[in-house]
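Thread: Newbie trying to understand structure tokens

Hi all, I'm a second-year student working on a class project, and my supervisor (Dr. K.) asked me to get a predicted structure for one chain before our next meeting. I've only ever worked with sequences, so writing a 3D structure as a token string is new to me. If someone could post the tokens and maybe explain what I'm looking at, I'd be very grateful. Here's the chain:
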Amino acid sequence: MTGISRRDFISKASLLAGSSYPAMLALGLLKTAPAEAFNLEGKGTGKHIIILGAGLAGMTAAYELKKLGYKCTILEARSRAGGRVWTVRKGTRETEIGGEEQTAKLEQGLYFNAGAARIPHQHEISLHYCRELKVPLETYNNINEAGFIYNDGEGALANKRVRIREIHNDMRGYTSELLAKAIDQDALDRPMTVEDKEVLIEYLRAEGELDPDKLYKGTPRRGYTTPPGAGNAPGKLADPYELSEIIRSGLIGHSFYNIGDYIYEQQMTMMQPVGGMDRISDAFERQVGKDIEYGAEVREIRKTTAGARVIYANGSGKVKEIMGDYCICTIPLPVLSGIASDFSSPVLRAIDSVAYYEAGKIGLQFKRRFWEEDEHIYGGISRTNMDIHQIFYPSNDFLSKKGVLVGYYNFGEKAVKVGDLSLAAREKLALEQGGRIHPQYWEEFEASFSLAWHKTRYSQGAFATYTSDSRERFYPALLQPDGPVYFAGEHTSYLTAWMAGAFESARRSVRDLHARVMSTQQAQAEVKG
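---
Reply by user tm_fold:
Sure, no problem. This is what the structure looks like when written as tokens:
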């Protein structure tokens, strides 16, 4: 390492790590952690950056670059900012690829998040920008034991709604009972002392709430048929389901059992912006909105000796051209695949090869929040193996009169199947299948708005999804600039499907681009000196 300059070291380390950040951190050149405000040194005054896409990645890049003195122009094909951070409200209009035009008829003040909907507490970068841009947050109730499991199939518990807490606690009890019996009968191969057994059995008794004979006979954790009250009202416990009934009814598969508890990024506490997820994109738009040209559909991306050239059609259909010193492209890969470019072969292969997941949602407005009033469900998710897959209950405006719940949130084959239906047929399916879980649907329903992300223009997919092979083969090409063009977006992160992926990728691009500009400036100064 003797004789190597810091600039050379950062450059070489960037090729290995995919980002200059680790190297700059190791050298002490960054004064703050990734989830803090940038304190990059130097100014990019006089440099013009073209940013393709006014989603979170594009607007974050512009926001940080403008702090450093760069001039930014953001080209956005839609008439709104935010990309897949999209909140549907009264008057929202959308026409899917090959689909019908629809206008949301939700009541004023009601909404649902059609795209991003949750912020994990582990995503410090997302919380940082909410804090910096003064976006107030509230708790998002992702896990609710009062929700339902419904399995369309065979078995004593199939084709009927079952509370999540009942299955969770019955399985917890039966599992603890079986383990306690095995330990007590010396059925474990591994030697244990008497004290070890006593401690473990005591734990299992507490975990499964077993009786003194180490048997599971039900527990208050799973609920009551008659709740406790004042006076002579101790409440009546509900009997547990038989273990064999639970198994044969298909209620402990991956689609149902404890999935929200185990996934790292869906563990509580989760959060959401007060008033809708678009409060975040609105906050960025207030910072960089004057730099956004809406209705700008990119037709070509070209590299030149002086920088980058982008050809696009504006809202009136007029073809225009813009030149910049550099370009940051945040366009989703399925869309980028259809845009003419002179990208390198590795980049073109990556663009054409990285898969995106299909997903669909429908918002259902009801004139009464029956899930709260009748069933005591405040936020959370009900799950089913039917085509609707999941029902999401709102975590906002509790106890108000009306509400909008997400009547389905499905993925993959189910999303394709439902997405191919007409708008009316999607609504009918959501009401029919959801009505098996909530019979109140038919009487209380007022309006719907549905979408299929894989058929949504300028997205054509919900989020990037990598296999270990595609991550190894194609991902690295998207981390390096292709001449003057840098790539950002959740697809250039390990946080695909999350806003944090967009934020992290934007910062990576800004760091690398700015380091390149500063390095060039220093080299020019040394030549002149």
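A couple of things are worth pointing out once you decode it. The CA atoms of residues 157 and 249 lie 5 Å apart. The longest strand covers residues 403-411. Feel free to ask follow-ups in this thread.
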